[in-house]
User: What shape does this take?
Amino acid sequence: MEKCGTIISYYEHIYNRPLADREKEIIRNTFQKETFKKKEIIFSSGESNTKHYFVEKGLLRMYVIDTSGKEFNILFARENQWIGDLSTPAITSFYLEAIEKSTVYSVSDENLNVLTDNFSTFVRYIKKSYIFLQNRLVSILSKTADENYEELSKLHPELIKRLPQYHISSYLGVTPEFLSKILSNKARKKD
Amino acid sequence: MEKCGTIISYYEHIYNRPLADREKEIIRNTFQKETFKKKEIIFSSGESNTKHYFVEKGLLRMYVIDTSGKEFNILFARENQWIGDLSTPAITSFYLEAIEKSTVYSVSDENLNVLTDNFSTFVRYIKKSYIFLQNRLVSILSKTADENYEELSKLHPELIKRLPQYHISSYLGVTPEFLSKILSNKARKKD
DNA sequence: CAGAAAAAATAAACTAGATTAAGAAAAACA
DNA sequence: TGTTTTTCTTAATCTAGTTTATTTTTTCTG
Assistant: This one.
């Protein structure tokens, strides 16, 4: 396939028009195709100017490690989804890791902003991310882990299938042991 | 004071330059000064096209009511702070209420976007909001209510003084009874 | 394919926080 | 100023979720 074809198709899709050669050229110059092995770390807490990543193939997670060393998954990204720390270019407190062997396109914050004519695409992206996060906060505050698991499995069944259980529990904010208990309770109830 | 003086000063401060008459005129035409009584509701869940609010004097809270009727405070805004549901103009699932008698400037999402030349001010605002929310999520996931109270009282001591305790507990995601217990434990330890 | 390593399940003891209900203190108000 | 309403406290009982430890199952790797 043509260089950066996936990204070009993506932008043609969201702009709902073919890109001009000039635009394609900008993309080819600013995006970089990268591959990561399973469990490979893409960026770490303490780094600055972290990039934005668009997943062509694979599955990534962004997570934080608290003072006692526990990990909490903040966000996952699978095919055709964006991931990255939106506080870039400031120092990040997150880690980005490939859960599966992944192929991604990376772009710096600066270049991403240059790209999107008038910021409106970026505004839409960050707004969507904000709303997602707000919903998550409300869910975590107001619902039990059991309810949050149900919600996740309804909204993103494919994630449940692909993720190891301990990554799901970390996303829900509970221990793997407790999620296992929830699931065995559910299984028992169904009988 | 001149009409919309507070807002004009605010923009002169963040732009770090005096505003042209033309710009001042836009502000006077797009912002609306409003006052709200204590406990008055500014917008409610289910409404669409909610506005953004800049607090001149007073204290507001944005909150959500869960399926069982419990309230959770998402965000507070005091003097010189912005508040509003960033998912506007889409339907909101939040409530905005004046905790104290408040004077605010309101502006529609459309007008706010027109105002800020090239989106960059709005991008900065939404990015800041996103980072704030992300930090809150991490705190709620990884820390105890006791630790979150400590953090809040260090970062925003003035809020602790102004807010009734049950609004703080709702922000921390615990019951008023439990926050009261935390505080009496703290008081006992100090002796 | 065997053995090692990673992931998941189970269970008992424990803790953070919820619930319910009552009373005390503080604030609002007339 | 006293009375009413709102806010805060205390305490007993209960539950969601943690911790620690062991076993089983699944996945990876040579």
